[in-house]
Structures are given as C-alpha cells and as structure tokens.
Design goal:
alpha+beta, 11 strands, 4 helices, 162 residues, six-stranded mixed sheet, single chain, 16% helix
Length: 162
C-alpha cells in the first residue's frame, strides 16, 4: 500500500492566539501581541467618549471586538480582558471575552474564496470543524486610533452587512 499526501505550496501557517467574543472564536497573530492584561478599574479612563487604558506610562485606545462585529455585549460584570496589539510602533488594546490559547493555524484566504474584508486577513478551520476568522492586527490598531482621534467612526460590523 502506498499513501501520498500532497500539500499545496501556498500553504501558510500562522502562530496565533485564539480569543472568544460572545460565541465566536477569532485568531490574533501572535507576532502582533505585545501582552494581555486584566486592568484595574482605575487604569481605564473615558475621554471625549473614547475609552483609554493606562499601560505602564502610556494611554492606549480600547476597541471592542463585540462592538465592531455587532455581537452581544458580555453578560455580567467580569473584569475586562485586554489584548495589547502592536504594529509599526503603534499600540492599541483590544477587548475580548476570553483568551482560549495559542496554537498554529493554517491560513486560508478569504479574498480568493469570497472577497476582501477589511479587518480580516483570512480564516482557518478549527479542530472541532468550526471556522474562525483571522484578524488583521494592523487594521484593528489603525481603526482604534482613528476612532480615538475622532477621524473615523466606521465599524467592522457594517462591512459584514454588505
């Protein structure tokens, strides 16, 4: 008996952190994660309607994946979990419901199979058969800064409504 396994040459593997928001699982590229934290209430400030978190000597804008994807807000008053993303010396905090773990995922292009979606760099199939979107850290950091600066007020949820 001879078995042959053929893998496409364009196979891309990504080290990622899986996070849960509502009932959905998303993958953040591990290379863009500076740290994760549960901030104290005193470390979070609201300025002109934008939420900021103090991390060391720096205030970072907080963006919520639940808001961007029009998902239900987490129930209860659990302490927030923030993932600090860093792209080109710009940092922003991403609010998630739960950190699920680190693992390698096979990156599947959405653009080749569907269309380009801002904020999403691809998708992967999890071990249980569910599909998880792989998030574009550069887009999330830029949108967090633009919303915080008041320059733009777009949300990823509007993209999926198209």
């Amino acid at each position: 008996t001879a078995m042959t396994i053929r893998l496409p040459l364009t196979l891309a593997i990504l080290d990622g952190m899986s996070v849960r928001v509502a009932d959905e699982t998303y993958i953040l590229p591990l290379a863009n994660i500076a740290q994760s934290l549960q901030p104290e209430l005193a470390d979070i400030k609201t300025v002109n309607g934008s939420r900021l978190v103090q991390v060391r000597e720096e205030y970072l804008p907080i963006t919520s994946l639940a808001e961007h994807f029009n998902l239900p807000a987490p129930a209860g008053t659990e302490q927030e979990i923030l993932v600090v993303l860093e792209v080109d010396d710009r940092r922003a905090a991403l609010q998630v419901d739960e950190l699920l773990g680190q693992h390698q995922v096979v990156l599947k292009s959405l653009e080749a199979n569907f269309r380009k979606i801002n904020g999403v760099s691809g998708a992967t199939i999890l071990g249980d058969g569910r599909v998880a979107l792989i998030l574009d850290a550069a887009y999330l950091v830029s949108i967090a800064h633009s919303v915080n600066d008041g320059a733009a007020n777009s949300r990823l949820g509007a993209i999926f409504a198209d």
